[in-house]
Amino acid sequence: xxxxxxxxxxxxxxxxxxxxxxxTCFDLLDHFYQEGFREVDSATNYPINKKPEDFRKxxxxxxxxxQVNNIQDLKVMMKVxxxxxxxTPENNLSKSFLLILLDEYGNLxxxxxxxxxxxxxxxxxxxxxxxxxxxxxxxxxxxxxxxxSGIKHxxxxxxxxxxxxxxxxxxxxHNVLYSDYPRYESLxxxxxxxxxxxxxxxxxxxxxAYNESSSLKARGGNTEEEHPIAAPLRAILGQANQIKGRPxxxxxxxxxxxxxxxxxxxxxxxxGASRVxxxxxxxxxxxxxxxxxxxxxxxxxxxxKNKFTP
Length: 310
Ligand SMILES: NC(=O)c1ccc[n+]([C@@H]2O[C@H](COP(=O)([O-])OP(=O)(O)OC[C@H]3O[C@@H](n4cnc5c(N)ncnc54)[C@H](OP(=O)(O)O)[C@@H]3O)[C@@H](O)[C@H]2O)c1
Prior knowledge:
With about 300 residues, the protein is of the alpha/beta class. It has one domain: NADP-dependent oxidoreductase domain (TIM Barrel). The chain contains ten helices and eight strands. It has an eight-stranded parallel sheet. The two termini are about 25 Å apart. The mean pLDDT is about 95. Bound molecules: NADP nicotinamide-adenine-dinucleotide phosphate. NADP nicotinamide-adenine-dinucleotide phosphate (NAP) binds near residues 12, 41, 171, 272 and 274.
């Protein structure tokens, strides 16, 4: 089967200024850009490390790199609405605030601003949601793309949008353990989905691969024991690697990438690389996915996922 549109890669910034130092962020951007990729994802509240002094730090690093290198052709996806980086659900999605942010990020990123994305919405009140979408409509008329992330009631968004006509890009947590995709059923076939968390926050098949600076540890995950999905995954990898003539699949990151790449409606894959070697490895495997077929692997991973999260 031919892929209608291969998803592109999007560089994530959630850990920038937290577990990833500013010089490493610059190295990641240098490498990603030199490899020909342009899409970068950020959010006002990155890094979400609960340190008020770090609010907007990730975007500041990105802006600095853009300025230093006089970049004009990046595609920055900004997730907006959060008013702190404390992991609380407090946010402001009023039309006036979104328009202030449209202005703010238009000034800060200039031609590099590509997507304005609503970040987390638990509301069900239709008039309030309509107002937020009207702000995204103004952004779309100004040449930006409109995005959604962490929406509790996508069906309300889908209904209101029938009269507004936005083409959404939607970030979803989507990996071999868990997926938000079914929750967005009302927008299936009508939006471009962008999976994040493809490594489930940094899971490794072999617990010996964790160390003190592992991001799973910083995020409060279990780095002591092998994850229950590791053994069935190794069996699937063994099977996939029986097929010769294509690069071998060897780690959890490969599984996450293959799963996202072949999933329906996916237009981009978010990479949360911590260092350039990881980014280079992910780009290498992305090129393998774009060149060879790994649908067999996707199908096995999907069956396994359904067993873990029926
Ligand atoms: N819309 C939303 O609500 C939302 C939520 C979360 C994230 N995001 C976006 O998505 C991006 C990625 O999210 P995430 O950090 O949660 O993703 P993730 O892919 O689940 O986890 C990233 C971690 O996986 C490991 N990893 C990455 N590439 C690897 C490789 N090639 N080989 C081995 N391990 C690798 C690294 O862990 P170690 O450092 O321990 O090696 C890295 O910190 C974020 O930066 C952010 O831009 C959006």
